[in-house]
Design brief:
Elements lengths: L1 E2 L8 H14 L4 E6 L4 H5 L11 H4 L9 E2 L5 E4 L4 H8 L4 H4 L1 H7 L8 E6 L5 H9 L2 E7 L5 H17 L5 E8 L6 H14 L12 H9 L3 H4 L4 H15 L6
Parallel strand pairs: 1-5, 1-6, 2-4, 2-5, 6-7
Antiparallel strand pairs: 3-4
Helix pairs in contact: 1-12, 6-7
The protein binds adenosine-5'-triphosphate (ATP) and magnesium ion (MG).
Length: 252
Amino acid sequence: MAVINQKGGSGKTTTCVNLSAALGERGRRVLVIDMDPQASATSWYNIKDPGRGVTEIFISDQPLLELVRATEVMGVTIVPASAWLSGAEKALRWESEALLRFRNSVKALPAGQWDYLIVDCAPTLGILTANALIAVQEVLIPVEAHHLALPGVDRVIASVDTLRANLNPQLEITLILPCRVDPRTRHCREVVRELRSRFGNLVSKVEIRENVRLAEAPSKGLPITLYDSNSHGAQDYRELAEEIIAAENGRV
Ligand SMILES: Nc1ncnc2c1ncn2[C@@H]1O[C@H](COP(=O)(O)OP(=O)(O)OP(=O)(O)O)[C@@H](O)[C@H]1O
Ligand SMILES: [Mg+2]
C-alpha cells in the first residue's frame, strides 16, 4: 500500500506511522518503507543511524531484506530513508530500469513474512513516488479537511490513472482518508461531506480528528498508540486499522 498525496502536509507520514502501529497491535506484521528523503517516518520510528537505508536499492542493488530494521513497536519493521535518497532521486533517469527498481526489490522479499507493506511517499510525483506506485497494489490518500486540499485529490487520481494505464494494471485507490478533521468547524464538515458525495465508499468510515497528541508524538519517537493510548488520535487510527482488517477477505 502506498500512502500518497502530492500536497505537502496532508497527513501521509502521520497515517503511515500510526496505521502501521495500530495494525501491529492487532497482530499484523507490517513493513514500513520510507520512500521520502525527508525521512520523517524513519525518525518518528526512532531509527537513529539509518545509514543509506532504502537508497541502497537504487545505488548498490542491495536486497531490500538486508535493509529491514527492527522498531520498538510490536509487529512493525522498517526500511529507513535518509538524505541520501534525494541525491539518488536526482541521479535516476526516467527509464524502465530505474522505475522498476523498487518493484523488483519487493518481489525478491521472502513470501509470507509480512501481512502489509506500507510505503510513505514524498509530496511530489518524482521518480521515487513513481517507483512506489509501480510496486504496490493499493493507494491510500490522506486528505487534509480543507477546501484547498480537494483539487489535490484529483491530481493524485490522475497520476494513479496514468501509472495504471502504463505500468501497473493492478493499481487501485482503496481508501481516501479525511485527516485533521475538526468536527466542530462547519468548513471541515463541508469538506468531508464533499469528499463523501464525490467518492462514496472510497472514503473511509473513520475520520482522523485534529489531535495535538498526534503532532507531539514524533518528538517522543513513539506512535500515538504508545504515546497516548487513550487519545482521539489513537482511537481514530485504531478504527482505521479495524476498517482495513475488516476488508482483508476481499484482498488478494
Ligand atoms: N490529525 C492530526 N492532528 C493534528 N496534527 C496533525 C494531524 N495529522 C497531521 N498533523 C500534523 O500536520 C503536519 C503534517 O502532517 P504529516 O507530516 O503527516 O504530513 P505529510 O503529508 O507526511 O507531509 P509531507 O508532505 O511533508 O511528507 C505535521 O506537523 C503533523 O504533526
Ligand atoms: Mg511525510
